[in-house]
């Protein structure tokens, strides 16, 4: 039994944590929050130079070849720092979709540029309100031209390419690569301004089919794999909230004693810890499943998605509660995590979608 | 990451599986053992015979010294044995406390000739041990216990009452912590002994539990004489010795209580709600998904614990969450299962209701799991203070001589 990251990867995690503590302090996140910049371009450049974006991209396509476990430990630290960078859109979604479904030529053309940070990618699935569902995909491709409205698209405003779910001429769902230069975009105001979100108004945009990817299952596969990586961001964010709340509970005095000595606070923090450890253990299994390309990736992904969303939502709201009134101010960082937890809970589909999918998968396993 | 055994672990797993295959029946079907009644005489005999068989095959006391019949093995082998045994129907419930807590405490504090006398018979299942800690006035606040021991020549004379003592009525010996000095703060006035449960003045009365069972007891002590040679640790050192006992409790791998989420899934397929199987109902699916995620989280947390053990490390604090999560989950799943059955959920006739009345019996037994071995509230305090580093609660009795500590409104 070796259900833990290797010493090398733990070292990578520690390096990433130190780097982000210095280079991605809350002041950096707040530049995006306050609208001074769309994303932290300098930080993005450095992440690319360190090989983070291409961590799981094979070396033959310009990646660092660290494997999925490497990408997972980085994701945890990016979540901990609430980093205002298009990491998940580029690495977990666009690059993953191309790796999974792209032709050899498409991989050679796009993956090295995604890995070195010169190209930002995004994933366009949603068409307004509603959870992932093939019935909601109305965008169409005819004669190599894609038309439709996609929103919200995370990082769509800063991305140069998008992987878009749309229907082909036969009406079947497929994935298409679209270069975004010239595509009309409306910037959205969202709950989490530390990440860019837009509406893409595609009107005959040039679209190239991504390999032979066909059907909703290709979309779901991309979502499943991204859910595992995103869960590590949720675990990192929840861990940061718990540490922040514990620190405050130790320092803040009321009634002549630290508030952390009150059981009402202790038990709240203990519950946050329990949810976090369950999520972490589920996420570890997901990391193993991704790197082993295990058959139960779908069930593992749905399970950790439920677990990690619960942990981050609980930790981010109870962190505010532990801080009391000061936690509700713009100046204190609690809301950065609260906002990001809402973002990550809804990206890739909200909890009702994943809970329903989890039971579907349990049932099909039981039927087999 | 991988889930593979080391060569040594694989060899032991094969040995354990071969032993179990040759000597025990695989668990049949999904029918759980109902625990509405305690062990009867025949049950005790089955437990003893099985323990003797395990000891003879070298499958008992795996981590113990070889001179006492153990293997001096890493705790990971004990976990592996438990995993393998889980697939078999074996008589359990009589030796967990003695072998898991009492004898390890003896090994830490008893004299060599006492170990010579007691360890072997306990390992072979010939003698049963119990642990006499809790009292009416000291459960979560264990150090508030009031049972007194006074020195009289070479003996100590014990008077008082213990409670919640599992298996006292089946036990030959017990370990007991008592107050020997009420004039000092509560933790400083305790002393630890072992005693013969057949000693004159020991009166054991079973407690009728709300579930109907009688697993544990009140034990009354009236002028019970215990020789000073049976003292474990120094006079006034009883709290420290108690912590040794409780430390051993932490590594015990508890069974996952049923009904588990799989049981609820099975029930939800057969019970009809709004004209279709309940498993198709969105509210039911949501709850199943949440409990499944928790169960899997605990399963993989155990894997993290095993990883630490396999490397010869002490497991991290993540090990402490299992009972806290499992206890409430069992109670909530039991309640939800009954909700699905409608009024028939009231019936506990196991020939009539679903799953042999597993949900009904769990509704009645599950409150105990949230209290025994550290209540939910105490476990949250432990996580908050020892894992998260929060300050201890302010104690109203801190530094106060025990006999000055308030005990009620009067």
The biggest beta sheet of chain A, please?
Answer: 7 strands, mixed
Name the beta content range of chain B.
Answer: 15-25%
Number of helical stretches of at least 4 residues of chain B: 11
> What is the highest CATH level, the class of the largest domain in chain A?
Mainly Alpha
Radius of gyration of chain A using CA atoms only: 20 Å
Characterize the overall form of chain B.
globular
- How far from one another are the termini of chain B? 61 Å
Quick description:
The complex is a heterodimer of chains A (368) and B (410). Chain A has 368 residues and is an alpha+beta fold.
Give a structural overview.
- The complex is a heterodimer of chains A (368) and B (410).
- Chain A has helices spanning 7-23, 26-33, 41-49, 67-80, 87-101, 104-115, 216-251, 263-292, 297-323, 334-346, 351-367; strands spanning 121-124, 140-142, 145-154, 161-167, 173-179, 184-187, 197-214, 253-254, 257-258.
- With 368 residues, chain A is of the alpha+beta class.
- Chain A has three domains: 7-88, Orthogonal Bundle (Butyryl-Coa Dehydrogenase, subunit A, domain 1), CATH 1.10.540.10; 121-214, Beta Barrel (Butyryl-CoA Dehydrogenase, subunit A, domain 2), CATH 2.40.110; 218-367, Butyryl-CoA Dehydrogenase, subunit A, domain 3.
- In chain A, strands 1, 2, 3, 4, 5, 6 and 7 form a seven-stranded mixed β-sheet that branches.
- In chain A, a hairpin with a 5-residue loop joins β4 and β5 (173-179).
- The two termini of chain A are 28 Å apart.
- The model of chain A has no long low-confidence stretch (mean pLDDT 97).
- Chain B is α+β, with helices and mostly antiparallel strands.
- Chain B folds into three domains: 7-94, no CATH class; 129-250, Butyryl-CoA Dehydrogenase, subunit A, domain 2, CATH 2.40.110; 254-374, Butyryl-CoA Dehydrogenase, subunit A, domain 3, CATH 1.20.140.
- Chain B is 41% helix and 15% strand.
- In chain B, the strands form four sheets. A four-stranded mixed β-sheet of chain B has the order 3-6-7-10. A four-stranded antiparallel β-sheet of chain B has the order 4-5-9-8, with no helix packed on it. Chain B has a two-stranded antiparallel ribbon with strand order 1-2.
- The N and C termini of chain B lie far apart (61 Å).
